[in-house]
């Protein structure tokens, strides 16, 4: 009798341990590294967008994968990797830890190209899929095109390219400013790879249209005073200011421009990343009046026919008591894309997911319609076979405390106002 009891105990121990291992394996979380500069507005958006998406996904069963003829629900676990905005060495170490020590299977996020480009080598070495919400310089997609086999793990999901932004500013200025007394242009940008590249390309394209470059200046990221630049603007008698700002320098520039009356004297247009934050107007007040900027990622206007934007804004506001910065929308979309890709392939294998994303008949419809070019994994833009894939929108701030889309035709909500002209 004692032997029988002992054997039963042994069997229970063995099979209990085996069953326990199976349960752990079947319900193991899928770990995803979330990369961003979390002490800055773009990084905060990446983090909150990821948090909201994963909360929803896990609440609804996580990611479903087949195992032994059954469907198994895996929760998502996020591993946060702070890249400190431009600290490449630190970010590289932290990303490796997230992969090697904490078990991250995928990367989502990224903002500054200066960090994204070198970290692509970590991605390539680890053969880990990265859905990139930042890194807009051509360097990112050029790197993929130059060695597709090595860097094929990176797909743009949230950003516009700097080339596309430069094309858009050329089209906007040609159709909205040419022949209206606007000739001399002053350019200013923060000393950052994306901003510099955009300004260089914008200059070339605008000069080809007949605009005259009368001033060009780069400023440090932590600049606190734009007075010297504004004095030069007056000296060269500029009619237009084109900017490329990515962080806190935007607010400094805008407030000083308003104090000096410049925002009412001439148009100020370009890239103002913080202006994509729905609370931007509230933070700078009437100083924002007449500023016009490229919208980096807009879930506000439905470009897909699948209206999800209002619902997202309501859920985001309920959770965080604020409206989302554009990186939040992009990251939220990217995590749902990853869930869709994993469940469509029925696998966590990177190569299977890459083949899906590269396939001719695959596209993902979230806030926007996403489809990738095989050679460099850049996003399709504009119209393609009757569909809108990524439309560049221009937004202007009006005296009523609201902003409206003013370009292109078909998406505009109000006519563009040229500051300094009646």
Largest sheet: 7 strands, mixed
Q: Beta-sheet strand percentage?
A: 15-25%
Total strand segments? 18
The residue fraction in helices comes out at 40-55%
Spatial sequence of strands, sheet with the most strands? 9-8-10-11-12-17-18
Note the topology.
Blueprint: H1 2-26, E1 30-36, H2 41-59, E2 63-67, E3 70-74, E4 76-82, H3 88-100, E5 106-109, H4 113-126, E6 129-132, H5 138-146, H6 148-151, E7 154-156, H7 162-176, E8 184-190, H8 193-209, E9 212-219, H9 227-236, E10 240-245, H10 249-259, E11 268-272, H11 280-284, E12 292-295, H12 309-320, H13 326-345, H14 350-358, E13 364-365, E14 369-370, E15 383-384, E16 387-388, E17 393-397, E18 403-407
Parallel strand pairs: 1-4, 1-5, 5-6, 6-7, 8-9, 8-10, 10-11, 11-12
Antiparallel strand pairs: 2-3, 12-17, 13-14, 15-16, 17-18
Helix pairs in contact: 2-13, 3-4, 7-8, 13-14
Structural overview:
The structure is a single chain. The chain is α/β, with parallel strands linked by helices. Helix content is 43%, strand content 20%. It is built from 14 helices and 18 strands. The strands form five sheets. A seven-stranded mixed sheet has the order 9-8-10-11-12-17-18, with helices on both faces. A five-stranded parallel sheet has the order 4-1-5-6-7, sandwiched between helices. The protein has a two-stranded antiparallel sheet with strand order 2-3. α8 links the parallel β8 (184-190) and β9. α3 runs parallel beside α4 (113-126). The protein starts with a helix and ends in a 15-residue tail after the last strand. Mean pLDDT is 88; it is low at 8-26 and 299-303.
